[in-house]
Design brief:
heterotetramer; A alpha/beta (396); B alpha/beta (277); C mainly alpha (290); D mainly alpha (329); B: 277 residues; alpha/beta; 36% helix; C: mainly alpha; two-stranded antiparallel sheet; 11 helices; 73% helix
């Protein structure tokens, strides 16, 4: 009896000593630095929505409380770095997710490194970011994956001979434009028109006329939403005789289809994820995320939201895993957990190399058909047949 | 540059301040009657309007010359041309026998020409003291010690009766005080030639009575040559040795004040001007 | 390499863009010329007009002929309220203060739109307006022709309002000589209010057109304000027909820069022209008073 | 002389208060790195605002384009340090020199313009510089921007090593030092004869010319000194944020916010712009952001409008400005 009691007490103590050890770590503190106001507000807001969803799910699943701190970097580099100071230096978060725009993520990731805080971004594709080999830097997507999808599809799926590239002078679009041009030229595709325009351009006709006069088969616009709207509207007026219209990112989204209506049809775009593009292994996860997102925010998730969601999810899992293994949420363990990650996600296989770049990241090229994104490249993720030649302004 | 002390304090009668030794302009040359300023065929057109039409005259050293004429006769334009504030359309201006057209106002000031504005233009955010000090510092080229500058400023302030107001800002001064500040500032640049643009306008008869001896004293004691625009004919008769009469941009009379009132063209200009007005 | 048709087409597109530029900046130029306020919230009034039109046209399917005046009216109301609540109280202080005030107002409005209507980019797409027409190999759309007509109508409407109507005369007299106008019995305070409100109305007309030709977003205003600035100086303060010419010079210059040189020098052209005009002819190309 | 010294007494008092506050601030914030870094930005802004106010408040020439000089300074230092291996400390100096030289390029043609036209010419210049930074890719890396700009190298004073990479507090004190240097330059310049000439030009440039002031030279000196100080701050920014793109270096923020800070704090006092920068930053950070995660800018805009209506001469303008006037009476 006594022995039993002692054993029982011992067990209780042991449990108390061990399991509250895990509990004693208290809630996981996750920081988010993302633009909520300013030029990039739109993307930052979607990103945060995805992250919030991930936090909800994680809390339910593991019954671990997550303290989420969201700081607006106001689309400003100084504020981005300052947000990290606040998250890592004051709130002592265990890790940071978010970040949109290479010019904001650059200073922010530097700051995170100073505080030895894992930093996981989904909105910065600039090569120079990982070239610094920061040990706390991780990202889900990077530039070469986008460029490969575009150049590959243009050469193989469309078979275009001449391509006109127009690109926004902003950092990410300028970089991808250069990369795609190099890849295309290497594949023997001509790029007679390669021009940079300023953000805020509204009259695209003179540029499009150059594409027309050069006799391009495909028009590739490396830009952002307003640039697609402008080029497509002007191309329609000019009845631009190209066979395909390819955009970089942020094209073919639900918002895009909503705003452009029939003129969103047949556009190609690179995507990391669109509804239905998840590999077999992750179909379930995809459906669950979309359903939960719709439930929570009353709208369809964009790929930015999905990326935010995934970054939040993997980061939290990594913190927890690292914490479980060692008994405390240390940055080192979190990094280890992230580096050992190798999973199939709705956006494909995810694992990181030593620079924090995603090892298996390739974007897919889709075509908008009847308002839906149909992946047409790479062939192994293909969802349907390409409609070629076809341009949005030809649609009725 | 050396300054000379003048024992007399005539201007103190105007200012009503304590008599004191005064240092103002240097007298590089005595009033020999040599030509100080000469205009030759000076013209200024604004579009089709000939504001100043081919005017020629001389001002000799030591003179007080008045410029009169009906409104719009071109008096102020003439001043602006002489002092470099407006470019002339044609003609020539010589100051101490050197051509000065096209020189900037600050260069002219350094050469020894200072002007006042019809509508007073003090620096509103600077005190009276600073207003005058700025003129003392920049009116002449070459470095001078702070001591020299300050004593100059204090002399000018005392001479113009502004000493008690040194710490005030111009907006708080009365009009006669501001007019005096305008003159004080011009004086502090230690000019050889002073262009006064209606310094008496807006003053009451008593104030004018006080101002006239002051102007005369500038001329007599400090040998500053004066060219002054004035509306008040009585004042100008009393103080000027010679007058120029302008009408429609033309010089219609150049001679002694007493002759002017007899001159047919001058009478016609004033009466005619009134009839059309 | 560049075909003659393309050069003509590019030229035309520049002219069309230029006419719209004139409309976008009309309100700012007008207010600057009359009330002497550089309204840094001008772009935000324009964007407000755009959002109102977006809701009416796209969401509720209201007839454009009704939606456009309504959008303009709302922007006019916003300008009226801004003036009565804020600007009126500091008319006597320095020009700089009105600048900061309108700048603050602009920030406030842009962020208000962000809160009200999210950061989404909106496109006012009306199908029949987007249909292209072809003349001898040159393409234009119905919407382009329409926006040009509206722009011209507004510019000339304003011109005739200022030169023919009683209120217009009062406004012009006030612009030329405030004190004289007050002496002549004109209530200059009221003229300021009216002029500022008209400035808002004019901006409000531009918004829907911007939404049709390009797109609108909460932060789109600042860019418009800067462009409007350039044009106002280019044209010369107070010259309303001059704005049309200046707009066209800018629009055509930008288009031809792209056609013959490179798209990256498009903006540079505008600013270089701006500085050159300022330095060579500070009163602008048509720097006469109204 | 007595009049002049007396005129500055209350300015000096205000200066002492602000100085004390700036020095004590990191302690008040208990070295919280976030707040410290927020106030590093505030002090950069404050220094630029003081420099801007030399041109506008003292000499009467309002500029809408100080971003031009800020960006030139930032890029000069960044390029020299990253491409040619200069010391960042030398970069600060070079940033100032080039900022000053750049100002002459636009100043010489623009000085004959008056009021808003001068202001707009500088604005145009800022845009041109930004577009050049965007297009001169061989020098500036174009829109990709310059990353990994070296921080200020650590200073070793005896056994004490002052590090500028990790510590925000050292950066704070460096920027405070720079700001006070800018303040002292402006302070002594205003007290000198040149300052007298600037005040005269501010009052009425024609009359100033009439009393022998070389108006062009006076304006040129005011602009060059103002731009040099701004350029130094730009160079510091480059090494502090360690990333530069045309959009951030030539951001309209650097043109507009110095004006806002100056007006907010009061242009009649030299320390006013500095105080304005601190107050604006403090309010935005400690008040508005507390209540609204995303909508805080809205209050910021409204606050600007309200303060301008309520106190058109700025926060310190009413006190320091008026007091010093009273002193002189």
């Amino acid at each position: 009896m006594k022995a039993k009691t002692i054993v029982a007490l011992f067990v209780v103590f042991a449990v108390a000593a061990w399991s509250p050890g895990a509990w004693a770590q208290g809630p996981i503190k996750l920081g988010v630095q993302a633009p909520q106001t300013g030029a990039l507000a739109k993307h930052g807001q979607e990103q945060v929505k995805g992250i919030r969803l991930a936090v909800d799910e994680f809390q339910k699943k593991h019954n671990v409380q997550v303290d989420l701190k969201v700081y607006d970097d106001e689309s400003d580099a100084q504020k981005a770095a300052a947000s990290i100071e606040k998250l890592a230096g004051v709130d002592k978060v265990h890790a940071v997710v978010g970040g949109y725009g290479s010019h904001l993520v650059g200073p922010a990731s530097e700051a995170a490194e100073r505080y030895d805080t894992p930093y996981f971004t989904t909105g910065a594709v600039d090569r120079k970011l990982s070239a610094k080999k920061l040990k706390n830097f991780f990202r889900l997507n990077h530039m070469p994956g986008y460029a490969a999808a575009q150049s590959g599809a243009i050469k193989e799926a469309l078979g275009a001979k001449k391509v006109g590239i127009l690109y926004n002078s902003l950092s990410a679009t300028a970089e991808i434009a250069q990369e795609v041009k190099d890849q295309l030229t290497a594949k023997g595709v001509e790029v007679p028109v390669f021009e940079k325009f300023e953000k805020g351009t509204t009259n695209f006709k003179p540029l499009l006329l150059k594409v027309k006069d050069a006799g391009c088969d495909a028009l590739l616009v490396e830009g952002y939403f307003p640039d697609y709207v402008g080029t497509i509207k002007d191309a329609k007026i000019l009845n631009l005789p190209v066979k395909a219209y390819v955009g970089a990112w942020g094209i073919g989204t639900p918002e895009f289809v909503r705003e452009l209506g029939p003129m969103s049809e047949y556009v190609y775009g690179t995507s990391i994820w669109e509804m239905g593009t998840a590999p077999k292994e992750a179909k379930e996860e995809e459906a669950a995320m979309v359903a939960a997102y719709k439930e929570k925010f009353k709208e369809e998730p964009s790929y930015i939201a999905m990326l935010g969601y995934l970054s939040g999810k993997y980061m939290l899992e990594a913190i927890l895993k690292g914490g479980k293994a060692s008994g405390s949420y240390s940055p080192e363990k979190t990094r280890e957990a992230l580096r050992s990650l190798d999973v199939m996600s709705p956006m494909g296989r995810i694992a990181f190399d030593e620079k924090g770049d995603p090892k298996y990241f390739t974007a897919a090229l889709f075509q908008t058909q009847k308002g839906a994104q149909v992946v047409i490249f790479p062939t192994d993720r293909k969802m349907g047949e390409v409609v070629y030649p076809a341009v949005p302004w030809g649609a009725k | 540059m050396k300054s000379r002390t003048n024992g007399e304090g005539l201007r103190d009668k105007v200012a009503g301040a304590n008599p004191a030794p005064v240092t103002i302009a240097p007298m590089t040359q005595p009033a020999t009657g040599a030509t100080l300023l000469e205009a030759r065929d000076l013209s200024k057109h604004f579009g089709g309007l000939r504001a100043v039409a081919s005017i020629s005259f001389r001002v000799r050293q030591g003179e007080i010359v008045g410029v009169i004429g009906p409104n719009g006769a071109g008096k102020t334009t003439l001043f602006a041309l002489l002092s470099g504030f407006l470019p002339a359309t044609s003609g020539e201006v010589l100051f101490e026998d050197a051509p000065i057209l096209g020189l900037r106002p600050d260069t002219l000031c350094h050469l020894g020409m200072a002007r006042t504005f019809q509508v007073v233009r003090p620096f509103p955010e600077m005190t009276v003291f600073e207003n005058v000090k700025a003129a003392a510092v920049f009116g002449k080229q070459g470095r001078r010690s702070n001591q020299e500058i300050l004593s100059d400023v204090e002399e000018v302030l005392r001479a113009t009766g502004l000493a008690p107001l040194a710490g005030q800002h111009p907006p708080s001064l009365s009009l006669p005080q501001r007019k005096r500040l305008e003159v004080a500032r011009a004086l502090a640049t230690r000019p050889k030639l002073l262009l006064l643009d209606e310094v008496l306008a807006g003053l009451n008869p008593k104030e004018i009575q006080e101002a006239l001896p002051f102007i005369r004293s500038l001329n007599e004691k400090h040998r500053v040559t004066i060219l002054m625009i004035e509306h008040n004919l009585r004042a100008i008769m009393g103080v000027c040795q010679r007058i120029l009469v302008l009408n429609f941009g033309q010089l219609i009379f150049d001679g002694a004040p007493s002759d002017a009132v007899e001159d047919a063209r001058v009478i016609e200009a004033y009466l005619g001007g009134q009839q059309h007005a | 390499m560049i075909s003659a048709t393309s050069v003509v087409q590019s030229l035309l597109s520049g002219m069309a863009e230029g006419v719209n530029y004139s409309l976008y900046c009309l309100g700012l130029a007008f207010v600057f010329g009359i009330v002497r306020i550089i309204n840094l919230a001008h772009g935000e009034f324009l964007v407000l007009g755009g959002y109102i039109a977006y809701w009416l046209l796209v969401k509720w399917g209201v007839n454009p002929l009704l939606a456009l005046p309504l959008a303009a009216a709302m922007a006019g109301v916003a300008a009226f309220v801004s003036y009565r609540v804020f600007l009126q109280r500091i008319r006597t202080s320095s020009e700089l203060n009105t600048l900061i005030l309108t700048f603050g107002l602009g920030i406030f409005l842009a962020n208000l739109y962000l809160q009200l209507w999210t950061a989404d980019i909106r496109n006012i797409g009306v199908d029949w307006m987007e249909q292209p027409l072809s003349f001898f190999g040159i393409y234009v759309s119905v919407g382009e022709i329409l926006t040009i007509l509206i722009s011209l109508a507004v510019v000339f409407g304003l011109y005739f309002f200022l030169t023919r109507s009683r209120t217009g005369m009062a406004i012009r007299v006030t612009a030329i000589d405030r004190d004289a106008a007050a002496l002549a019995g004109i209530n200059v305070e009221r003229v300021d209010l009216v002029a500022f409100t008209i400035g808002g109305l004019l901006a409000g007309v531009g918004g829907p057109l911007l939404g049709m030709l390009a797109h609108i977003s909460p932060g789109a205003g600042l860019h418009i304000t800067v462009k409007a600035f350039i044009l106002t100086v280019l044209a010369g303060v107070g010259s309303i027909p001059g704005l049309l010419v200046a707009g066209m010079i800018l629009g055509v210059g930008e288009a031809l820069t792209v056609t013959f040189i490179n798209a990256s020098y498009r903006e540079l052209f505008g600013f270089a022209l701006f500085i050159a005009i300022l330095v060579i002819r500070p009163s602008g190309l048509f720097g006469r008073r109204l | 002389m007595g009049n002049l010294t007396r005129a500055f007494v209350s300015e000096r008092t205000a200066g002492c208060i602000v100085t004390g506050f700036v020095l004590a601030l990191p302690f008040l914030l208990s070295f919280n790195p976030y707040y410290t870094s927020v106030f590093v930005s505030a002090l950069i802004l404050g220094a630029v605002a003081i420099a801007w106010n030399l041109l506008a408040g003292v000499c009467g020439q309002v500029s809408f384009g100080h971003a031009a000089f800020f960006g030139i300074g930032a890029y000069t230092s960044a390029v020299l340090v990253t491409k040619w291996g200069f010391s960042p400390y030398l970069g600060l100096v070079a940033g100032g020199v080039f900022g000053g030289l750049g100002s002459l390029i636009i100043g010489i043609p623009a000085f004959r313009l008056r009021g808003p036209y001068f202001a707009l010419a500088i604005l145009g210049f800022a845009e041109v510089m930004k577009l050049l930074a965007l297009n001169l890719t061989w020098l500036t890396e174009g829109s990709l921007g310059i990353m990994n700009i070296a921080p200020l190298p650590p200073l070793e004073v005896g056994s004490l090593k002052i590090d500028f990479y990790a510590s925000r507090t050292t950066n704070y004190y460096v920027v405070a030092l720079l700001m006070f240097a800018v303040y002292l330059v402006v302070y002594f310049l205003r007290r000198s004869n040149l300052g007298l000439a600037m005040s005269a030009v501010h009052g009425d440039d024609e009359t100033a010319a009439g009393i022998g002031v070389n108006v062009f030279r006076t304006k040129a000196i005011a602009l060059t000194v103002s731009a040099t100080c701004t350029g130094v701050m730009g160079a510091f920014y480059a090494h502090y944020v360690r990333f530069l793109s045309p959009d951030t270096a030539f951001d309209g923020y650097w043109s507009v916010m110095p004006i806002v800070a100056s007006l907010f704090g009061g242009m009649s006092a030299l320390i006013g712009p500095m105080a304005g920068a601190l107050v604006i930053t403090g309010l935005d950070e400690f008040v508005f952001k507390r209540f609204f995660e995303t909508g805080h800018k809205l209050f910021f805009g409204l606050l600007l409008a309200v303060v301008i209506v309520w106190a058109p001469t700025g926060l310190l303008g009413n006190r320091v400005g008026k007091r010093s006037e009273g002193d002189k009476r």
